[in-house]
């Protein structure tokens, strides 16, 4: 079967928008990119099952960054599907300690307390990373022709997944709720801009953000250059 990308959009708590997970399926297996928040666990499993994802077929769970609306179901799915969790070392402490400010430059004690409650993230949802992913790593052994690109800015351990056809899953470096833009929540904008410049060196067609709709990279790239 040719590589397919199934976008699974899950509602966030308190009507605070949505978050995307992506199921990549090829002939040799499937890889799930991000897992949504724990409050939509049943819906996620239902959508994965409908897409033909079963224990044995899911080879890897990739987390693009450590926010709870992306890591919320990783530990549960690892146990359910027997698939390891891959993540960048820079954000691994967020997952293991249940602290979204673990590696960020700024901290907000109120948000730090509220965030896990908001996302339904419990101690049982914390996890240790099985596979540390870094720039240039490939996912071919898991059945998907794709590579890892380090794109810090939203967090220091943020990564993107670039597939052979030029489709980029960018986590929260960018969003497209109303129009393509940098994420509205950014730990280090200057670093994010450097990440965007780094992407100029790759052949990218379509960008799939963690929040919102896909967009064409060439058009957005031109808008970034015009804004300078």
- Which homologous superfamily in CATH is the superfamily? Ribonuclease Z/Hydroxyacylglutathione hydrolase-like
| Total count of strands | 13
Q: In sequence order, what are the helices and strands, one letter per element?
A: EEEHEHHEHHEEEEEEHEEH
The CATH architecture would be: 4-Layer Sandwich
CATH class group: Alpha Beta
Mean pLDDT figure? 92
Structure annotation, total helices: 7
How would you classify the helix and strand content by structural class? alpha/beta
Question: Ends: how far apart?
Answer: 43 Å
Q: How does this model look, in words?
A:
It contains seven helices and 13 strands. The protein is an alpha/beta fold. It has a single domain, classed as Metallo-beta-lactamase, Chain A (4-Layer Sandwich). The chain has a six-stranded mixed sheet, covered by helices on one side. The chain has a five-stranded mixed sheet with strand order 7-8-9-12-13. A two-stranded antiparallel sheet has the order 10-11. A hairpin with an 8-residue loop joins strand 7 and strand 8. The model has no long low-confidence stretch (mean pLDDT 92).
Short description:
By secondary structure, the chain is of the alpha/beta class.
